[in-house]
Specification:
Largest sheet: 5 strands, antiparallel
Number of helices: 22
CATH topology of the largest domain: Beta-Lactamase
Structural class: alpha+beta
Distance between the termini: 70 Å
Oligomer: single chain
Helix content: 40-55%
Length: 737
């Protein structure tokens, strides 16, 4: 084989050129001896029609004879119906292709015959017949040269094309070397900045352009020299290579988005692999003064742009600039820059993964230290909780004993006077009855507080989301609390800052009133006479903010962390000046968090405190209703058995109680691994599965595939499911959630 011809030649050609190449292979094969083998994908289709049914689409021509061997492989590019071709005379490459072909299509006769000769192919030193190779090469480049240079098709072979052939081959080899160099850098280094700087320098030298830059987009995953995301502007130039210092630098240049808006969906086109070649900037961008002015300002006469797409997101652009003259860009240059962009995208993605690993490595030791400290803190917290519970029991005995003593004592006094038949003055009777009623209300309040807290702790309180008026709810709670404020000579003020059109809000109104009741009562309790308590209400975006401010005794900074803890009061039981169970603010915090909200406190000793509650609009958490017809279809009267797969005991207990009360027979399973066999045995009408169970998708898919269980409805339990989640879940065999 002629040493001037490379063993592998790659090009992008039109479909017409590909057909001409196939004809050349057939021409060379014609007249060869019987032991020659000429094989194409068309011949395989004729011999084995099942290949078409399996969607086999690879195109190739293989000539194998004692005098000449050549392989042509074509891959169709759907975007422009061109072919990416590879031509090789290398024996090892041909042997590898034969082996892959045999694995893909099976033992077809001609392929089997070729595969049996592979060991001999690899062992011998074979060179194509020189005359035949020369004739073949001339014909080959008679077809290829018009494709790459834009010249008219050559009518007759001539030795004069040898020089352009050599130049084209040299260019091909240089491209391959540079691509291999970039790929090698990607494998050898995980530093994106090193790879990018080296790559643009070498690519600029190869293309012989004045300037080559990398432009990174904002709001996409971005790695600059310090592996940090771009933080200002619409995007900027982060890497640059210049042919000389006479060419102005545009490093860190920020381009405005307005300059590109006239190009419809230009980002999406780049994301799909568009390569843009501009031979004359002034002519090409004549309709965009902004962009033409920007390019002229930085001495850009012609440019070639290829995208860098990382994980299907447009990360940036690879841009070649010709600064002092127009330039015609060849197809080979466009294809080359596109390939470089693809390889750089791989390097950037690897660097991102490496940066993440390094960050995790750096934080691991710190996390170990933090976890160790957490364990110590947990132990101390457990010891403190034991002490707090003991103090709580002491507090509760005092809080319950006082109103009970009043009720028993005063009611006994009234009975004593009635038994004696004596008449107690009416005013005293009314006074005693009022004290009994107040003490009873106090007891009821304490008991309700305890019950609410225990239900919250057990996760048995569900929100009843409704739409209500923020103003009406606030006035109702103020009206309810104003009597106590007057008794303690406290000025109660209301500062409502919500526009009328934004007054409607979604939440659980009863629980919101309970939150405000605890905060207002707490403020009144700790504010001395003639002090002031203010309730403020306003809206911020999708949140409602409730703020209670008082001029009370305040809270010291070291006591703030204990404020929302259960069983906690900021005074010891023997020194208490104020009553209470120590559960009020803990209950308030849990009710706020049940709404997915937050509560904050600011306080200065001797000046007062400010409690701020932020509640998000709960419209998205309204209960999802299922039509009665669908429920009846799912749970027939003949089969009212249900299997529940749930590892959380409290959740399982609640669901079992609800379903049992509705006359369903419930079987509770904990182990998801054995659930399928038990469900197949029990044949329930419905299976309820917790989304947090790792086997949930395996269970749902298996049940839907088994004939005996495919009719069983599968219901998923989850605290939050988006519409996108549901589209994915419904494909896993889940019927509802």
């Amino acid at each position: 084989m002629d040493n001037s011809v490379p063993s592998i030649l790659r090009r992008t050609v039109s479909s017409n050129a590909y057909e001409q190449l196939c004809s050349l292979w057939k021409q060379i094969a014609t007249g060869r001896r019987k032991e020659s083998i000429f094989l194409t994908e068309e011949a395989l289709f004729a011999a084995n029609i099942s290949l078409l049914e399996r969607g086999y689409r690879k195109r190739f021509c293989l000539l194998f004879s004692p005098q000449f061997r050549a392989l042509l492989v074509g891959t169709l590019r759907t975007e422009d119906l061109s072919y990416q071709i590879e031509i090789t005379w290398d024996s090892r490459a041909i042997a590898d292709f034969i082996n892959r072909l045999a694995e893909e299509i099976g033992q077809q006769a001609e392929v089997k015959r070729l595969r049996d000769r592979v060991p001999k192919i690899l062992s011998e030193r074979f060179v194509n017949n020189p005359k035949l190779q020369e004739h073949f090469t001339l014909k080959l480049f008679e077809i290829l040269l018009p494709e790459t240079s834009g010249e008219q098709e050559i009518s007759s072979p001539s030795v004069s094309i040898c020089q352009p052939v050599e130049e084209a081959l040299y260019q091909q080899i240089e491209q391959e070397k540079l691509l291999n160099q970039v790929i090698a850098q990607i494998h050898q280094s995980l530093e994106a900045s090193v790879i990018l700087e080296t790559a643009i320098r070498e690519v600029r030298n190869y293309l012989q352009v004045d300037r080559l830059v990398i432009y990174e987009f904002r709001n996409e995953i971005s790695i600059n020299r310090d592996l940090k995301q771009t933080s200002q502007g619409w995007g900027r130039i982060t890497y640059e290579s210049r042919a000389s210092d006479n060419i102005p630098s545009i490093l860190n240049l920020i381009a405005e988005d307005d300059c590109f808006t006239y190009i419809p969906r230009y980002k999406e086109k780049y994301r799909r692999g568009l390569v843009v070649a501009v031979e004359n900037v002034e002519t090409h961008y004549s309709s965009s003064f902004c962009l033409a002015e920007l390019l002229a300002k930085h001495d850009v006469k012609a440019k070639l742009v290829a995208p860098i797409v990382v994980e299907e997101k447009l990360w940036g652009l690879l841009i070649a600039h010709q600064c002092f003259s127009d330039r015609q860009w060849f197809e080979s240059e466009k294809s080359f820059l596109r390939q470089i962009g693809e390889h750089l995208a791989v390097a950037i993605y690897q660097a991102q993964l490496y940066a993440q690993v390094q960050k995790q490595k750096e934080s691991f030791e710190q996390r170990v230290i933090e976890r160790t400290q957490e364990l110590r803190d947990t132990l101390l917290a457990a010891q403190a909780a034991t002490q707090s519970k003991s103090e709580f029991l002491g507090n509760m005995s005092h809080e319950l004993r006082t109103p009970l003593t009043s009720v028993i004592g005063l009611s006994g006094t009234l009975l004593h006077w009635f038994d004696k038949g004596s008449k107690l003055p009416l005013e005293k009777q009314q006074h005693y009855l009022q004290m009994i009623q107040d003490s009873g209300k106090k007891l009821l309040e304490l008991i309700n507080e305890l019950l609410d807290f225990s239900q919250l702790e057990a996760g048995k309180i569900l929100l009843n989301i409704k739409e209500f008026s923020l103003q009406n709810l606030s006035r109702e709670i103020l009206k309810f609390i104003e009597g106590e404020a007057k008794n303690q000579q406290i000025n109660l003020e209301f500062d409502f800052r919500v526009e009328k059109k934004r007054d409607r809000f979604f939440a659980d109104p009863d629980r919101v009133q309970q939150i405000l009741f605890h905060l207002l009562k707490n403020a009144i309790k700790f504010t001395p006479a003639q002090g002031t308590v203010i309730l403020r209400v306003w809206r911020e975006n999708y949140q409602a903010i409730f703020q209670v401010e008082d001029t009370g005794i305040g809270i010291s900074e070291n006591q703030l962390p204990l404020l929302f803890e259960k069983f906690q009061q900021l005074e010891k039981s023997l020194q208490r000046t104020y009553g209470g169970t120590g559960l009020g603010l803990a209950l308030t915090k849990q009710l706020v968090e049940l709404h997915q909200g937050t509560i904050e406190v600011e306080s200065i000793v001797g000046q007062g405190s400010i409690f701020t509650v932020r509640l998000p609009n709960q419209s998205h958490r309204q209960l999802k209703t299922i039509p009665a017809s669908k429920v009846k279809a799912s749970l027939s009267l003949e089969n009212k058995s249900i299997v529940l797969i749930e590892r959380d005991e409290e959740i399982a207990t609640l669901i079992c109680e609800l379903l049992t009360a509705a006359n369903y027979q419930v079987v509770w399973l904990i182990d998801g691994n054995t659930a399928i066999g038990q469900i197949d045995l029990l044949r329930p009408s419905l299976t309820i599965v917790d989304r947090n169970i790792s086997e949930v998708y395996h269970i749902s898919k298996t049940l839907k595939q088994m004939p005996s269980t495919k009719s069983i409805k599968i219901l998923l339990v989850s605290d939050q499911i988006t519409s996108l989640d549901w589209r994915l879940l419904s494909q896993q065999g889940i019927d509802d959630y």
